[in-house]
Amino acid sequence: MIGSFLPEQSRRVREPAVAGRFYPRNPVELRAQVESFLASALVPEPSIAPKAIIAPHAGYIYSGPVAASAYASLTSVRDTIKTVVLIGPAHFVPVRGVALASTSAFETPLGPVDVDLEASAKLRSLPFVSVSDDAHRPEHCLEVQLPFLQVMLSDFRILPLVVGDATDEQVARLLDSVWGGPETLLVISSDLSHYLDPLSTARLDRATAEAIEAGSPERIENQQACGRVAIAGLLIAARRHNLHARTLDLRHSGDAGGPRDWVVGYGAFVFSSG
């Protein structure tokens, strides 16, 4: 890993922002929880070799089982994947276009995950890509994906990106530039509808799932997914690369014991050529 060869004094690590809140801070408890989610997840047929997944990013007690459905689909390629492109929405700090982090690694209670510094450097040539550690520092959408990746994969690096006011086509162009081969996995971090009643949530999230399966980004509006731009960019790129989407799981926070007067929707999706 590139980050592993940096002198120790030059390594800059992005510390966890939501450990102890969105997921357990204790590494033993965290690994056990993730493994339990994965053990209970439905695994697609082994013939599926995912190139991309969409997974939610809420607290694990609400969205962990749904996220596990996406990550369990990686079972057949877990030893092949070496680079994970992580893309999610900027929730806290305004971002022009898409923002990289300048850090060498992202830390979780399960240990550090090295950043693919070579790929990061190449992306800086795109006019809509910049560096913003301020945007990454408090952001949970990428962080909560890391423990699942650490449990599922053996040896990998990440390319962490948060999306601000970028366009769908810009995200698609970015994905095209880092597409790679089977060693590269694309992970889009997004929840679905927010703060609707369960019936409205089910209807809207099913419409979103149908649009994703149809490869139709124009059918997904902002209120349908907080990571809409990243999802739309993936759909455009997937069309160019002849990938097809499949819905693996679709639930909401009320299904996990949260309040049922208003809920947040979660979906797990896998993209493959099969």
Task: Describe this protein's structure.
With 274 residues, the protein is of the alpha/beta class. It has one domain: LigB-like (Protocatechuate 4,5-dioxygenase, Chain B), CATH 3.40.830. Helices cover 31% and strands 23% of the residues. The protein contains eight helices and twelve strands. It has helices spanning 27-40, 60-72, 117-123, 133-136, 146-152, 168-177, 198-214, 228-240, and strands at residues 13-14, 52-55, 83-89, 98-100, 105-108, 111-114, 129-131, 157-163, 184-189, 194-196, 244-252, 263-272. Strands 2, 3, 4, 7, 8, 9, 10, 11 and 12 form a nine-stranded mixed β-sheet that branches. A hairpin with a 2-residue loop joins strand 5 (105-108) and strand 6 (111-114). The radius of gyration is 17 Å and the shape is globular. It starts with 12 loop residues before the first strand and ends with a strand. 50% of the residues are buried.
What is the fold's blueprint, element by element?
Elements: E1 13-14, H1 27-40, E2 52-55, H2 60-72, E3 83-89, E4 98-100, E5 105-108, E6 111-114, H3 117-123, E7 129-131, H4 133-136, H5 146-152, E8 157-163, H6 168-177, E9 184-189, E10 194-196, H7 198-214, H8 228-240, E11 244-252, E12 263-272
Parallel strand pairs: 1-5, 2-9, 3-8, 3-9, 4-7
Antiparallel strand pairs: 2-12, 4-8, 5-6, 10-12, 11-12
